[in-house]
Amino acid sequence: MQIFKEKQPLITTLGSYKSSGKTIGLVPTMGALHEGHLSLVKQALEECDKVVVSIFVNPTQFDNPQDLEKYPRTLEQDIALLKQAHEDLLIFAPNANELYGEKIISEHFDFQGLEKVMEGKYRTGHFDGVGTIIKLLFTIIQPDKAFFGEKDFQQLQIIRKLTEILKLPVEIVGCPILREDSGLARSSRNERLSSLHREKAAFIYNTLKKSRQLFGTKSADYIVKWVEDEFKNYPYLELEYFEIADTQTLKKAEQKKKGAQYRAFIAAYADDIRLIDNMPLNN
Ligand code: PAF
């Protein structure tokens, strides 16, 4: 296990691996690691010779200062967890100035509309922040492959678009969502849920599953209305959005098109904790 707080020693170490023909995998994280992250690390270790796990709570992707402040920071625990996963990982845990320099600001990106819907609509500037940090990490680490969870499916498609726009030679690997026994998607935010809300939040997964069943026979509009009504009658969660969208363009499904693939996307609040999830509907 090698831990780097500064980029230059990491670049030097990776350079020597690369010159001896080793492939590099990157798992970018914001820490507070859980089984979901470990599954990304496992997949990266299967597909690459050396794996870097970055741990950095990226300030520019938070639109809400309280959310940034409350985001769990558990570096020691994260390192211990990664040590159990594999002795030979490289951990990159820099501070903000090491990555950004003096000015901790986002670059602006045009992700051709992918950034305007759903999370982009409700979290102003979020994807500029994500694009900025991923571009910085890719520039430093120059991975052959980078691994992201499908829980943040919109983020995954935007990072694919980022690499296409910047013509970066990195393969973006999407990894399946890991769920708690109840079906709730694993997330660092789950730790902040009360035990009641943690149990009741399984409603999100159950609603997605029912939407998937309905998708065989009902229109997208019908299902959206049905989900909105379900949430109105459920006192434990507040729905922010539910959308059925084309997997590639993330545009709302107005009429189902033959051959197109669709996903349902959801964001809901349990108290002040924002949860997101998604599910493929027709594959
Ligand atoms: O998904 C996350 O944890 C973050 O958005 C990421 C990709 C690590 C960028 O900060």
Report the order of strands and helices. Answer: EHEHEHHEHHHEHEHHHEEE
What is the level 1 CATH name of the largest domain? Alpha Beta
The set of bound ligands, ions and cofactors reads:
pantoate
**Could you say which structural class the secondary elements and strand pairing correspond to?**
alpha/beta
Q: Between the first and last Cα atoms, what is the distance in angstroms? A: 39 Å
The gross shape turns out to be globular
Q: Which band does the percent of strand residues land in?
A: 15-25%
Subcellular location: Cytoplasm
Protein name: Pantothenate synthetase
Keywords: ATP-binding, Cytoplasm, Ligase, Nucleotide-binding, Pantothenate biosynthesis
Enzyme class: ligase
Q: What does this 3D model show about the protein?
A:
The longest helix has 16 residues, at 126-141. This protein has two domains: 2-175, HUPs (Rossmann fold, 3-Layer(aba) Sandwich), CATH 3.40.50; 188-277, 2-Layer Sandwich (Pantoate--beta-alanine Ligase, Chain: A,domain 2). The model has no long low-confidence stretch (mean pLDDT 96). It contains eleven helices and nine strands. It has helices at 7-19, 35-47, 65-70, 75-85, 96-100, 119-122, 126-141, 153-165, 195-200, 202-215, 220-232, and strands at 2-4, 24-29, 50-55, 90-92, 145-149, 171-175, 238-246, 262-270, 273-280. The strands form two sheets. It has a six-stranded parallel sheet, with helices on both faces. The chain has a three-stranded antiparallel sheet with strand order 7-8-9, covered by helices on one side. Helix 7 (126-141) packs across helix 8 and helix 10 packs antiparallel against helix 11 (220-232). The protein has 283 residues and is α/β, with parallel strands linked by helices. Bound molecules: pantoate. Pantoate binds at residues 28-30, 58, 61, 130, 133, 152, 155. GO terms for molecular function: ligase activity. It is an enzyme of class 6 (ligase).
